[in-house]
TrEMBL record, chains A, B:
Highest taxon in the source lineage: Bacteria
Keyword DNA-binding assigned: yes
Protein name: TetR family transcriptional regulator
Keyword Protein transport: no
Domain HTH tetR-type: 9-69
Lineage, top ranks: Bacteria, Bacillati, Actinomycetota, Actinomycetes, Streptosporangiales
Keyword terms: DNA-binding, Transcription, Transcription regulation
Length: 197, 197
DNA sequence: GTTCGCCTTGGGCGACTGCCCAAATCCAGG
DNA sequence: CCTGGATTTGGGCAGTCGCCCAAGGCGAAC
């Protein structure tokens, strides 16, 4: 049979998963220690044995999930041979995370909670920076102008569209693909980019 | 002197303002009736005299603020004579709502709460649809291709950038302006679009 | 068999929650 | 003056909260 230390680690990971689910379902501030314990199938007191506090548990659980999400996106990205293909793959993620699914909700909840929790904020900032750097590098290799700023805008646009999709289900990947495609091509003359005097 | 009905209306509106502030500061689920009453300077029981429930108060308060935000954005938009100028004005809003200010936070909190509150969701969907329609019409008048889809992407991108800005303060309007400018020009390079044809 | 240390239990603490309500207060109309 | 209706008060209700802790269970080392 498993040693008690091994069982302990398993309980800890079950608590993390339960916490991630509940953050997505109920919202960051609506998750209680007893809820998490019940879903994980353990006694309430165990939460504060394995974690210093409830926010610490929620933070660790959320960061873990978001690392997996970013990992998945980066993996798809690394297979793209052209910028257009990379965009296509990112838009596929838009369908995979429609905005009202657990992963999308968790990311949004964490984004708001990050405004009130410094540790969470720095962790998320690191994740975002890493993803944007990778995307920017890929865009640069494909000759997209201003690649890293474009990457920043693309990442923000994707997040925003996931949010807006809750309010407008018609905001699908096929609907926005041609528009975003314009971001990837050279910006030639014509646009009246009105400068400041 | 004021009649009791007039004082009542004033108390009601103070409760609404206090609720909006607290949603932004503490988060949707962290606002309590007693908090709101204290900030509004009234007795706790008054909350349930003027409002059916706490969610009803939060919803009405948030919708009221968001209506004002959209109103302001539309007003600026109506003064723009070119698509580039319209974009410029929208980016100015990006600086006005840096992501960690009360208005931005309230919008984000409401967006998440809308996923769990049907009334709030339909109210917000209406606001978003109205804004996108106005923006799309303006882009169409300036010859921007696929104007209404472009408007949808622009609106989402703006929201997303406000969110990301809390994680990366360098995501300023000047940094993203040239990238977003590419959204406004024709797919095939060379089509200038200055003023009316 | 005994001891040791990690893991687990379940209840208890004071504080807080949304909502309710009898009683007090207020002012306009009679 | 008094009455009537709207507004306001502050406490009470049953429930939940985060966190804590004495006590017990359990496998490994000796």
């Amino acid at each position: 049979m498993a040693t008690s230390a091994e069982r302990g680690r398993q309980v800890r990971s079950r608590l993390l998963q339960a916490a991630a689910e509940l953050v997505a379902e109920q919202g960051w501030n609506a998750v209680s220690t007893r809820m998490v314990a019940e879903r994980a199938g353990v006694a309430p007191g165990l939460v504060h044995y394995h974690f210093a506090s409830l926010p610490a548990l929620l933070t660790e659980a959320s960061v873990q999930v978001m690392e997996a999400v970013v990992e998945g996106a980066e993996q798809g990205l690394s297979q793209a041979r052209t910028a257009a293909r990379a965009l296509e793959l990112m838009l596929a993620d838009l369908d995979r995370y429609p905005g009202d699914d657990p992963a999308s909700r968790l990311v949004s909840e964490a984004m708001l909670a990050a405004g009130r929790d410094e540790g969470l904020r720095t962790a998320m900032a690191g994740l975002l920076a890493r993803f944007r750097a990778r995307l920017g590098d890929r865009l640069a290799a494909q000759g997209v102008p201003d690649p890293h700023r474009t990457a920043a805008v693309l990442a923000a646009a994707l997040d925003g569209m996931m949010l807006h999709r809750t309010l407008d289900p018609e905001l699908t990947s096929t609907a926005v693909a041609p528009v975003l495609g314009r971001l990837l091509q050279d910006g030639t003359p014509g646009t009246a980019q009105e400068g400041h005097p």
